[in-house]
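Q: You know discrete backbone vocabularies at least as well as I do. I have my own habits and do not want them to colour yours. No explanation is needed for now; the record alone will do.
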Amino acid sequence: MGRILGISSILLLILTFPLETILAVTIQMNAGRIFKKVSVQKETETEIEVVDPDGVIYRIRKDKIKQITEDAPDTVPEFASDESVPTGAVKAPSPKDTLPEHSILLSQSFSNDGAFQGSDLFGERQARRNGTSYKDYYEAYFLTTSMEVLGLPKPFKLGLTMMNPLVDRSNTDTDLRLQSTPGGPDQTYLLDKSIATGTLQFDPNEVKTRKEKNGLYDYLFTRAMYDHETRLGTFSAGFLFINQNDPAYVMRGYWVIGWKAPFWEWLNPQFSINNKMLNDYGGTFQGTHNYRLTVSHEFFKGETFRITPSLVVGYAEVNDNTDRKKGISDISPRLQFDYGKFFFAANMMYRATPALVDNATYTPNIGVYPDSNANDGLTIDPSKAYGYKNELIIDYISSLSDDPAVKRALVDHYQQQHIVHVIFFYNIGYTIRI
């Protein structure tokens, strides 16, 4: 058999090999990139699918391939059987190269914010902590570290992702509230009375700004999945667990099922359902569902420089067991550029149904009046909630009318803002095998 194999003969060569034999080849791309010791899994008219020694699967366009070279088989001499030994023949030790060449696929990236199913993970909490308005771009910088176990059987996937804030980690009180105890009621009104009367109305050593647990959280995502390939597509099932370093959240657990369509391979369509199964917040979110549709396409497959646009659309059937709202949780386009081991991605999250997060759990009520309309997409602007300046403004507005309804309308108009529909963030990082 020749050392150089034509692409059209790959499938024929696989069929002529015994099933237990692994066909190892080296693929050289037109741009110079080389895939070593890969085995061919399947072939279409335009692409071939290969798996490397670590179990990582690649799809490679045929028109980008320069040549495919068959690797020489590794032969290991067997020990002769010693019939005088009652325990049976001595088995040869497993050759070292039967183990995966690498153990972990490591990826690290730096970002200014993060999102999950329509929720902003860092930026909006940072705004509440620092008393700033909600906005579409935050500087809540954090480091993401992802590790995926390599060398597992092809259907199995196991990985974890850690998201560690690099700013605003400490517990502090920067929202200008005056308290006699950490987490106690706001007593800023005492300062307003002191200014109005010219006499100090409180003990500054007792009533003051105090540190609270309002630092940004660390997140840990753990994922275990099983894929089953059929003629109807690839079906998958598994678990996603999310831990936070805030005891109020404990753990969020999702039962994930998915399907990858066998058609429209150019768009790589995938559909999944995240089913909430663990109890948190007294069961508030238990039993909720989020349907996810993903399409993507990688341009310049197998090249050193690659571009991958993608789009994810999520639909929440029930956002929680109290509000029971439904709607599009997020429309999240992403554009990623890869150069060798490095990548840069620009992301956007669009909340088509902001009422899904218009509740006291996601956007806590920090205004003078409780939120009486949970479907208007309005929430309290953190920059207009606390501090003696806001107290003075609210007192003045309230004095404009004796009608309670008018007072409330005026104060709400001052304090409220629309929940941000669009949030932008980026990732820059690298991926290596160790």
User: Anything to note?
Assistant: Confidence is low (pLDDT under 50) at residues 1-22, 76-85. Residues 404-415 form the longest helix (12 residues). The first strand starts at residue 4 and ends at 5. The helical segments are 10-16, 123-130, 188-197, 388-398, 404-415.
